[in-house]
């Protein structure tokens, strides 16, 4: 079957098996920033955004995503030009092995677009489905609080991207 989606801002058509998940489709086509952990909807490592909402790609059948807009971690910054949420994770040393981090960042970005100034409790609730086996979570919470300030300073559009001309 063919699946038509807008992936990281570009309209694309992918071939897929009916039994594929969105995570299968992404990773098979080189979008390996989205990680496969449990593959059962329990760890958050595979978090992407579908039509602006955070979603677990491992339990999303491809048949249900036709016509949607998908954003993966590859849609954010680059190695030389990080997104503010990515910068905050690096500067707060909020990662160790890094395996959970793409999902954490995608979930955090969605939170901050919806709620630019979340309380610590709101951050913990938002990230409650994203597990991390390394950091103990404290630095991740610090990073999200820091990212909230950075996104405010840099002028972040409603879709989580940077507003041109601001923060440049
Ligand atoms: S790999 Fe999707 S929730 Fe764990
Ligand atoms: S940094 Fe290793 S799982 Fe989170």
Automatic annotation (TrEMBL):
Per the UniProt record, which EC number(s) apply here?
1.2.99.8
Domain (2Fe-2S ferredoxin-type): residue spans on this chain: 1-76
Could you tell me which SUPFAM superfamilies the record lists for this protein? 2Fe-2S ferredoxin-like (SSF54292), CO dehydrogenase ISP C-domain like (SSF47741)
What's in the keyword line of the UniProt record? 2Fe-2S, Iron, Iron-sulfur, Metal-binding, Oxidoreductase
Family annotation (InterPro entries): 2Fe-2S-bd, 2Fe-2S-bd_dom_sf, 2Fe-2S_ferredoxin-like_sf, 2Fe-2S_ferredoxin-type, Beta-grasp_dom_sf, Diverse_Oxidoreductases
Q: What Gene Ontology molecular-function terms does this entry list?
A: 2 iron, 2 sulfur cluster binding; glyceraldehyde oxidoreductase activity; metal ion binding
Return any one Pfam family short name: Fer2
Q: Which PANTHER family match?
A: OXIDOREDUCTASE WITH IRON-SULFUR SUBUNIT
Instruction: Please state what the protein is called.
Output: Glyceraldehyde dehydrogenase small chain
